[in-house]
């Protein structure tokens, strides 16, 4: 980034939106919203999705313009909002499912109320109280409960915080086709903004007043860190000899993928059915749907790193190899070409390792095997929907599953 462009970006950093920031933001949002890839699914929850970004901005509102602008930069340069979309569709699909008794006590109003005394919660910031904001939507418009809508917002906030932190760890310069937050605002501010989002998400989560839901989403935050540590450490331990057991390594990879990607989707799906008062049979299957969908989503992401351009993907291609990270296509290529073992173990650090690995992935059946594994998880996700009542929302979840498997970005 040139000095003049960076200077204008930094204008937004200190509380004003620069011309370049506005131009990039507007063009990117228009591009994302016009893709139409999930258009039919979005229509079923359009009232909720149309207010999502506005409500999230209210939840992380702060009198500190720097924190607000860094967090808002990622919220505004939004992706397809797959995670909140899944949460809302699960909520709608299970709204007519059997319910447990006495489950409606805190659905409508208490999620907006602080638990502690307001003069304690807002002690240092009385002008910007740490309160949840009323959702500007009439309950008559939808059969999704306010607490479930709030959960969808919390899910997206946690995801956005993880992107801010991931880009710092990976030293990324591009996110969703735009300069990444750490590249624009610096690593320190990106980390702090991610922490701030997690803090505000935790506040909103506590006000849902459901102990299991709080426990689920709290473990998600821990899972994200555990998955990142597994990824940084590498799934081939240094003490292993060169003759690795392929299935053991693949199992480690899938565990890392669950922690880093699928956990948030899986536990959010379970959480929203808990907020909807569903029976254990429904909540268990909602979790399995989210888990398998999340695994399929990441496996598809792994394939896209080899099959599309950087401009289409919205982030650097070959990034995982450059970072020394092992993904499913590489593992399957290694199964066919054992000479990749030492290359993988040294994390593609020698000259020519990245190009050679890329060639062998393309030459092997690595991409096809990855596709087949993703299809396997998609089928498991679809099986989990069989206990849901037949409805347009259940059908939308089925269609969404196919689209995630066959997406091109």
UniProtKB/TrEMBL annotation:
CDD domains, alphabetized: Trans_IPPS_HT
Cellular component aspect of the GO annotation: extrinsic component of mitochondrial inner membrane; heterotetrameric polyprenyl diphosphate synthase complex
Obligatory cofactor(s): Mg(2+)
UniProt signal peptide: none
Protein name: Hexaprenyl pyrophosphate synthase, mitochondrial
Alphabetical list of PROSITE patterns matching this protein: POLYPRENYL_SYNTHASE_1 (PS00723), POLYPRENYL_SYNTHASE_2 (PS00444)
Domain of life of the organism encoding this protein: Eukaryota
Organism of origin: Pneumocystis carinii (strain B80) (Rat pneumocystis pneumonia agent)
GO molecular function: all-trans-decaprenyl-diphosphate synthase activity; heptaprenyl diphosphate synthase activity; metal ion binding
GO terms of biological process kind: farnesyl diphosphate biosynthetic process, mevalonate pathway; ubiquinone biosynthetic process
Family: Belongs to the FPP/GGPP synthase family.
Keywords, in A-Z order: Isoprene biosynthesis, Magnesium, Metal-binding, Transferase
């Amino acid at each position: 980034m040139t000095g003049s462009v960076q200077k204008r970006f930094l204008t937004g950093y200190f509380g004003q939106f620069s011309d370049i920031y506005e131009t990039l933001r507007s063009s990117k949002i228009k591009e994302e919203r016009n893709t139409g890839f999930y258009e039919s699914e979005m229509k079923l929850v359009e009232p909720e999705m149309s207010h999502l970004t506005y409500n999230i901005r209210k939840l992380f509102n702060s009198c500190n313009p720097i924190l607000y602008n860094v967090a808002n930069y990622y919220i505004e340069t939004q992706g397809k909002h797959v995670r909140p979309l899944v949460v809302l569709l699960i909520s709608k699909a299970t709204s007519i499912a059997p319910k447990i008794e006495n489950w409606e006590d805190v659905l409508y109003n208490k999620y907006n109320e602080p638990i502690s005394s307001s003069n304690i919660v807002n002690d240092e910031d009385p002008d910007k109280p740490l309160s949840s904001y009323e959702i500007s939507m009439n309950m008559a418009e939808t059969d999704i409960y306010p607490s479930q809508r709030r959960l969808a917002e919390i899910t997206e906030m946690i995801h956005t915080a993880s992107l801010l932190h991931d880009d710092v760890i990976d030293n990324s310069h591009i996110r969703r086709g735009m300069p990444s937050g750490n590249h624009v605002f610096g690593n320190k501010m990106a980390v702090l903004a991610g922490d701030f989002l997690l803090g505000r998400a935790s506040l909103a989560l506590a006000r849902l007043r459901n102990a299991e839901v709080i426990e689920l989403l709290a473990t998600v935050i821990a899972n994200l860190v555990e998955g990142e540590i597994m990824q940084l450490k590498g799934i081939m331990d240094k003490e292993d000899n060169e003759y690795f057991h392929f299935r053991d390594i693949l199992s480690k990879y899938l565990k890392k993928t669950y922690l880093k990607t699928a956990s948030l989707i899986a536990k959010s799906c379970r959480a929203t059915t808990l907020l909807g008062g569903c029976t254990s049979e429904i909540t268990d299957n909602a979790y399995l749907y989210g888990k398998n969908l999340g695994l399929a989503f990441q496996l598809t992401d792994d394939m896209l790193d080899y099959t599309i351009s950087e401009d289409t993907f919205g982030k650097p291609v070959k990034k995982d190899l450059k970072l020394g990270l092992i993904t499913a296509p590489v593992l399957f290529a290694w199964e066919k070409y054992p000479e990749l073992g030492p290359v993988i173990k040294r994390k593609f650090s020698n000259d020519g390792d990245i190009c050679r690995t890329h060639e062998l992935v393309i030459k092997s059946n690595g991409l096809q095997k990855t596709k087949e594994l993703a299809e396997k998880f998609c089928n498991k996700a679809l099986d989990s929907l069989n206990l849901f009542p037949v409805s347009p929302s259940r059908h939308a979840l089925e269609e969404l599953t196919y689209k995630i498997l066959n997406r091109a970005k």
